[in-house]
C-alpha cells in the first residue's frame, strides 16, 4: 500500500478548498480531488452572474476577499479562489473523477479515480449539487434546443427563448437574453415570481407588466418540438413558436454516488444524507460531508457563507480523535 493520507477531499469547490486549508493548518496530509477544474461549479455559472453574498461571506481560511463592489461577480470569485489555491500551495488533483470509495482490511479508505488510486484514513465529500439538473420530464426534453445551463446572452440574439422557472436564474436569463435581442417568454408554475435578488425582481416585474417579456403564471410545459412548445395555462393549452427552451429548474446532488459508496439517505423524499451535525461524520466511519451536499434535495439550506464552518468542525473532530487514540 502506498502513502496513506490523513484526509482525501472529494470536490475542489470553495468548501473543499476550505477543508484543505484546515487540514494544512493542522499539519495533516491531504489531497483535494475534483473531476473538473478548480471551483468547477462557479466556472460554469453564467458569465454575468452576481452573488447574493458579500465578498467577506465568500472568504475561506480567513484569507481576505477584496472586491470592487459589495457583491462580487463570477470573474472575481474565480480569481479569488484561484489565488487562494495558488498562494497556499494547496495539494490538488484536478480533472480526476472519483469512481469508488471503499474501506480496506487495514481500516483505511481506498479511493479509485479515473487516473490513480489513493489511500486515506478519512474522506470528506464536498461535491456540491450543480452537476445534476432537475428535469422537466416532458416529451421533447432530450432535444438539443433544451438547455439546463446558461452562460452568455449574446448567443440568443433574435431567437425565440422560453425560460422555465420563477427564481434567480430564470430572472437573470429572461432579462439578459431580452436585453440582447431575444423574444422572451416565461413559464412559471406558481402565481407569482419567486426568490429573486432584490435589485433584479422589480426590473423583471416591470418588463412583464410592460409586455416586453411575456409570462404565463400557474402554467407548465407539456411538450417540446423543434420549432414549438406546448404550454398548459389556466385558460387551456397554448402553443408558441420557439427556438430554445432554457429550463432553469435547479439542480440536485449526485445521490447515486452517495448511495454507491454506502451513505444513508433519509426516506422522507428529501434524500437528506445521514450525518452527525456536530462532527459532519456520516454512517460510514471517518467519512464526512461538507457544504451544500448536506441538504439533500433542499439545496437552499447550505451556502458557502454558512457551510465553510464544516471544514473547521471536521478537522477539529479528526484531531480530537487522534489525541484520544
Automatic annotation (TrEMBL):
This is YpdA family putative bacillithiol disulfide reductase. InterPro entries: Bdr (IPR023856), FAD/NAD-bd_sf (IPR036188), Ferredoxin-NADP_redctase_2 (IPR050097). It holds the Pfam family Pyr_redox_3. It comes from Adhaeribacter terrigena. The keyword Flavoprotein applies. The keyword Oxidoreductase applies. Keywords: Flavoprotein, Oxidoreductase.
Amino acid at each position: 500500500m502506498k502513502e496513506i493520507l490523513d484526509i482525501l477531499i472529494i470536490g475542489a469547490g470553495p468548501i473543499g478548498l476550505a477543508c484543505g486549508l484546515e487540514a494544512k493548518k493542522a499539519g495533516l496530509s491531504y489531497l483535494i480531488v475534483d473531476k473538473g477544474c478548480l471551483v468547477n461549479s462557479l466556472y460554469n455559472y453564467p458569465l454575468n452572474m452576481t452573488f447574493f453574498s458579500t465578498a467577506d461571506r465568500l472568504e475561506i481560511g480567513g484569507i481576505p476577499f477584496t472586491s470592487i463592489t459589495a457583491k462580487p461577480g463570477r470573474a472575481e470569485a474565480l480569481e479569488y479562489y484561484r489565488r487562494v489555491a495558488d498562494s497556499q500551495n494547496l495539494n490538488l488533483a484536478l480533472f480526476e473523477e472519483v469512481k469508488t470509495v471503499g474501506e480496506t482490511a487495514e481500516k483505511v479508505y481506498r479511493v479509485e479515480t479515473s487516473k490513480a488510486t489513493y489511500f486515506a484514513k478519512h474522506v470528506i465529500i464536498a461535491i456540491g449539487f450543480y452537476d445534476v439538473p432537475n428535469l422537466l420530464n416532458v416529451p421533447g426534453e432530450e432535444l438539443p434546443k433544451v438547455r439546463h445551463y446558461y452562460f452568455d446572452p449574446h448567443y440568443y440574439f433574435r431567437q425565440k427563448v422560453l425560460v422555465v422557472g420563477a427564481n434567480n436564474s430564470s430572472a437573470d436569463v429572461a432579462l439578459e437574453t431580452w436585453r440582447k435581442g431575444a423574444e422572451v417568454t416565461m413559464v412559471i408554475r406558481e402565481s407569482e415570481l419567486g426568490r429573486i435578488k432584490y435589485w433584479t425582481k422589480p426590473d423583471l416585474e416591470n418588463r412583464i407588466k410592460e409586455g416586453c417579456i411575456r409570462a404565463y403564471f400557474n402554467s407548465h410545459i407539456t411538450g417540446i418540438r423543434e420549432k414549438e412548445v406546448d404550454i398548459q395555462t389556466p385558460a387551456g393549452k397554448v402553443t408558441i413558436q420557439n427556438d430554445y427552451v432554457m429550463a432553469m429548474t435547479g439542480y440536485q446532488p449526485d445521490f447515486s454516488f452517495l448511495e454507491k459508496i454506502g451513505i444513508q439517505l433519509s426516506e422522507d423524499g428529501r434524500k437528506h444524507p445521514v450525518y452527525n451535525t456536530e462532527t459532519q461524520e456520516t454512517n460510514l466511519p471517518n467519512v464526512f460531508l461538507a457544504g451544500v451536499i448536506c441538504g439533500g434535495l433542499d439545496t437552499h439550506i447550505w451556502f458557502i457563507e454558512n457551510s465553510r464552518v464544516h471544514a473547521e468542525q471536521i478537522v477539529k473532530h479528526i484531531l480530537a480523535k487522534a489525541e484520544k487514540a
